Amino acid sequence: MKPGKYDLLLVIDVQNDFCPGGALAVPDGDSVVPDINHMAGDFGHCVLTQDWHPAGHSSFASTHPGKAPFSTVIMPYGEQTLWPDHCIQGTQGAAFHPGLDLPRAQMIIRKGYNPEIDSYSAFFENDRKTPTGLAGYLAERGLKRIFCVGLATDFCVRFSAEDARKLGLETVVVLGACRGIDLGGSVAAGIAAMKAAGVMLVERV
C-alpha cells in the first residue's frame, strides 16, 4: 500500500516524555522514529500532534490528592485515567524526539492545553465535542485518507483513528510504527475497537 496525492501521514505524540527515560515512557517508544522517518519520504502531506499540558492539568494524578498514577476518576466528561505529570508546555519532555526528521510536516496540532479536559484524539478533546481543527484542515486541503503512526497505540493513536472513521475518512494505522502503554490489556482492546470502527491495520507501508 503506497500513499497517494490525497493521503496524510499523521504522526502522533512522538515526544520525549513518551520515550524511554521520559515521565510517561511507552515501552520501546523511541523505536518508532526510524520507521516514521523512512515512511515520511513517501508522503506529500504530514501533520504532527503534540501533547501540550499546562502545569497542574486535571488529568495529572498529582492534582488529585490520594490518587495514584494510572487510577481513574470521573470528570464532567466521563471517566479519566490519571497520568504522571508529563508533556508540560515548554519543557524538554514536551519536545518532539530529537531523531524525528520530517521536513515535509506542514502543521502541529497541540492538544491537552485546556487545563480541565484531557485530549487523546488528534480530532477532538476528551469531551468528544470540542474540535482541534484537524478535520477542517483535511477538508480544506482535500485530503481523504490518513495513515496514523506514533504513541501510544492504545490511547492517542486509537482515539485519533476511531474519530477519523467517524468523520468519514479512510484510516490506516501502521502498527509497526506504533507502540502501546498496555494498561490491563488496553492494546488488545484498542486494536479490537479500531477494527470494529473500520480502521485498516497494517504492519508496514
TrEMBL record:
<keyword id="KW-0378">Hydrolase</keyword>
<protein>
    <recommendedName>
        <fullName>nicotinamidase</fullName>
        <ecNumber>3.5.1.19</ecNumber>
    </recommendedName>
</protein>
<comment type="pathway">
    <text>Cofactor biosynthesis; nicotinate biosynthesis; nicotinate from nicotinamide: step 1/1.</text>
</comment>
<feature type="domain" description="Isochorismatase-like">
    <location>
        <begin position="8"/>
        <end position="201"/>
    </location>
</feature>
<dbReference type="InterPro" id="IPR036380">
    <property type="entry name" value="Isochorismatase-like_sf"/>
</dbReference>
<dbReference type="Pfam" id="PF00857">
    <property type="entry name" value="Isochorismatase"/>
</dbReference>
<keyword id="KW-0479">Metal-binding</keyword>
<comment type="similarity">
    <text>Belongs to the isochorismatase family.</text>
</comment>
<keyword id="KW-0662">Pyridine nucleotide biosynthesis</keyword>
<dbReference type="InterPro" id="IPR052347">
    <property type="entry name" value="Isochorismatase_Nicotinamidase"/>
</dbReference>
<dbReference type="InterPro" id="IPR000868">
    <property type="entry name" value="Isochorismatase-like_dom"/>
</dbReference>
